[in-house]
Amino acid sequence: MRIAIIGGGAGGFFTAINLAEKHPDFKIVIFEKGKNVLGKVKVSGGGRCNVTHACFEPKELVKFYPRGNKELLGPFHTFLTGDTMEWFESRGVALKIESDNRVFPVSNDSQTIINCFMDWVEKYQIEVKTECGVENFEPQENQWLVSHSEKQELFDAVVVASGGNSNAVWNQLEKLGYDIEPPIPSLFTFNTKDTRLRNLSGLSVPNAKVKIAGTKISESGPVLVTHWGLSGPGILKLSAVGATLLHSKEYQFSIIVDWCNDVDSEKVLESFQEQRKFHPKKKVLNTPLCDLPKRLWESFIQYCGISEEKIWAELGAKEQNKLFETIKNSLFQINGKSTNKEEFVTCGGVKLNQINFTKFESKLHPNLYFVGEVLNIDALTGGFNFQAAWTGGFMVAKSLVK
Q1: Residue 402: pLDDT above 80?
Q2: Distances, alpha carbon 331 to alpha carbons 12, 155, 214, 260, 291, in Å
Q3: Which residue from 40, 133, 210, 358 has the highest number of Cβ atoms inside 10 Å of its Cβ?
Q4: Measured distance CA(222)–CA(298) in Å, rounded
């Protein structure tokens, strides 16, 4: 059996290796239009490769997928994060779970994952063609005619694993009758010139709540102040969940930030009263509350018009109210986005109602399969997008072997 895999990324390699392992006599060819393979694996997690996430319950895991959660529930019962970890460790890649449950190779080097893939590709004699883009693929009787930059070949099955920027592939799929959700950015950071964040680049808050104003869309997590605005896991998660809405707004919108999500509103107000009662002569400027970073607190005091010399006993009701709102309900106008280069992800792709997710096979054409971001599936940052690719690749290999 001859299998063509379009795309030399994580999903393509994982599918190929699992296929070859289960059926060594298959002839498997990976077609990659670029000079190099596994590019996203190389840069993932700051060059460390965030392999997966230590969430071991399918019903919990799917909550991290803004698009594709219902479709992935069944497949995750077949191949989950623990299976991914066992797969790599049984092939000599030691993994570790970090405090935020992200999973990385112990080496802290994405090249470890790449080397693993390349070793097994060589062992199973899987052919990898770089700078060899697939120009066309179409059904021909019970096979697929694949036209690439070298020649035309017949294959028994085609696996499309071309990623989230595969316009040429999507165009070809549209000709075959597939509906494509136009790709738009999913994980990105927010641009703002708000004066409260001036000179605070590099400052982070461990657990903030961020909400798109006028909606119910909110996320929590670390927020990082950058020289262009706001980033960090909390912002990236919000950008993923709100990707379609924010795209429709052309990235001109407002967010509300609760800078101390761990402390409820009543306790913040109580802390004001405690300062007035027990430390009345302390300067407000020198008394950061709610574990806020000192620089952020000083910025808030300045924004609220509270003088540097004012003590808690002198703090008026209006000043207290403004300080409270600044801590718990800061409104920021966002004007544009920036690419999160480490974890560049798009939402969009082949619409999911055309896929049989027990096999990751097309409902329109037999022996045409889809893995990874070519589908309209994407996830929050933290190893979840790779997990969707690993699961899809495993399911395709299992299906084709049958």
Answers
A1: no
A2: 43, 56, 11, 14, 20
A3: 210
A4: 20
